[in-house]
């Protein structure tokens, strides 16, 4: 309902802008200039539309659904008054910025904070868990009312998190887990079902190959819950098949690392490789680059599967170079601030919330669904 009202309003605004531009240009400007100006204005309006739609996403709460048997929707309850967030100080302790997913996540939290009038303290730990712990301590010292934490690894943040909780700061863990306890180290944790994601890729690969083939695994950051659980999901699912893991190496969720690691694996195993499972799509795309550079054809000689579903992976699927990707949304801004608003309103928040995912292949890959 609310969305429709917005859209109607926006259409009126778009039209008004476009008309002003055209009227303003008809007298002496030649037509192509008028068109260019209209385009520019429409682009500006489109940006505004995006902002408003994003803001709307923050406000609107959807109804829970189970998606593809994976994770339960991240939904908490009826509409909540988000105006309580205005002027609040919230920390966001990001782990690193090494891939497209992470950058999209940071952007999501920062733009939601902006739209909601939250004073955001942002820190990037650059892949160092000790720095992330001290970032959290600094945020508490700076008077953060809440902190949103994307934990690099499961171990290393417990002390800082416990102190934050003891100081009365609300703690929302996002996207990865820690070896800790709700109520002690954090209030709630929102993430995807990583085991399910790994299982989905494995099941798809089994279908595609009849369960036979030599497999290379490119692992994410060691000690991170995302890497550990995706590994478990994949390896346990291929147990009992004739799929054999011939190389299993760390590439830290990063494309440059994946290119280098995959080049070495290709040198050692070359033509023997049938399948690559990468813990994320930036690494899958890195593997595809290395496969191509080695003179092999990704999608034909070697089947590649990954997780996340950025636009680049959607394109690779549509081009036949990547076989499958399971989506994992990086858009944590709206849900994090919704949780904070609910906490301020005194609602009880479940200690764990799961984000849903979707499997994309050549039949449903869509760049508009990527990030
Ligand atoms: O898949 C990856 C990122 O923790 C879910 O971390 C996240 C993962 C995501 O670096 O691309």
Write the layout of secondary structure elements.
Layout: H1 2-26, H2 31-59, E1 89-94, H3 100-116, E2 119-124, H4 129-141, E3 146-149, H5 158-166, E4 170-174, E5 188-192, H6 194-209, E6 212-219, H7 225-238, E7 242-250, H8 255-269, E8 275-278, H9 281-293, E9 303-308, H10 311-318, E10 324-327, H11 333-344, E11 352-355, E12 359-360
This protein binds beta-D-fucofuranose.
Question: Your description of this structure?
Answer:
- The chain has a 6-stranded parallel β-sheet with strand order 2-1-3-4-5-11, sandwiched between helices. The protein has a 6-stranded mixed β-sheet with strand order 7-6-8-9-10-12, with helices on both faces.
- The longest helix has 29 residues.
- It folds into 3 domains: about 55 residues, no CATH class; about 140 residues, Response regulator (Rossmann fold); about 140 residues, 3-Layer(aba) Sandwich (Rossmann fold), CATH 3.40.50.2300.
- Helices cover about 45% and strands about 15% of the residues.
- The chain is of the alpha/beta class and about 375 residues long.
- It has 11 helices and 12 strands.
- The protein is elongated, with a radius of gyration of 23 Å.
- It binds beta-D-fucofuranose.
- The site of beta-D-fucofuranose has 11 residues, from helix 3 and strand 9.
Which ions, cofactors or small ligands are bound in this entry?
Answer: beta-D-fucofuranose
Radius of gyration: 23 Å
Q: List the helices and strands in order.
A: HHEHEHEHEEHEHEHEHEHEHEE
**Strand tally:** 12
> Strand order, biggest sheet?
2-1-3-4-5-11
Number of domains: 3
Please state the oligomeric state of the protein chains shown.
single chain
Helix tally equals 11
């Amino acid at each position: 309902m609310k969305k429709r009202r917005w859209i109607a309003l926006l259409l009126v605004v778009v039209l008004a802008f476009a008309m002003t531009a055209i009227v303003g240009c008809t007298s002496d400007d030649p037509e192509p200039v008028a068109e260019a100006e209209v385009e520019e204005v429409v682009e500006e309006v489109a940006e505004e539309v995006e902002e408003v739609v994003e803001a709307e996403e923050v406000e609107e709460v959807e109804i829970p659904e189970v998606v593809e048997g994976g994770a339960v929707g991240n939904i908490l309850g009826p509409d909540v008054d988000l105006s309580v967030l205005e002027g609040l100080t919230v920390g966001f302790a990001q782990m690193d910025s090494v891939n497209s997913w992470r950058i999209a996540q940071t952007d999501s939290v920062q733009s939601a904070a902006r739209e909601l009038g939250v004073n955001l303290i942002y820190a990037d730990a650059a892949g160092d868990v000790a720095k992330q712990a001290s970032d959290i301590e600094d945020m508490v010292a700076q008077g953060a009312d809440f902190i949103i934490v994307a934990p690099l690894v499961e171990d290393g943040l417990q002390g800082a998190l416990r102190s934050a909780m003891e100081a009365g700061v609300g703690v929302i863990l996002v996207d990865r887990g820690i070896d800790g306890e709700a109520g002690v180290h954090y209030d709630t944790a929102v993430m995807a079902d990583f085991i399910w994601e790994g299982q989905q890729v494995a099941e798809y690969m089994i279908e595609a190959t009849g369960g036979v083939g030599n497999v290379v695994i490119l692992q994410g950051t060691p000690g991170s819950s995302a890497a550990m659980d995706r590994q478990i999901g994949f390896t346990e699912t291929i147990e009992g098949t004739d799929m054999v893991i011939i190389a299993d190496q760390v590439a830290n969720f990063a494309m440059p690392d994946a290119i280098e690691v995959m080049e070495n694996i290709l040198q050692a195993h070359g033509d023997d490789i049938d399948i690559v499972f990468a813990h994320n799509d930036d690494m899958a795309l890195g593997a595809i680059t290395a496969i191509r550079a080695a003179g092999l054809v990704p999608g034909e000689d070697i089947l590649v599967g990954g997780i996340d579903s950025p636009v680049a992976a959607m394109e690779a699927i549509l081009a036949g170079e990547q076989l499958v990707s399971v989506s994992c949304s990086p858009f944590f801004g709206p849900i994090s601030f919704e949780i904070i608003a609910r906490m301020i309103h005194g609602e009880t928040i479940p200690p764990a919330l799961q984000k849903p995912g979707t499997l994309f292949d050549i039949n449903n890959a869509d760049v508009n669904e990527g990030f």
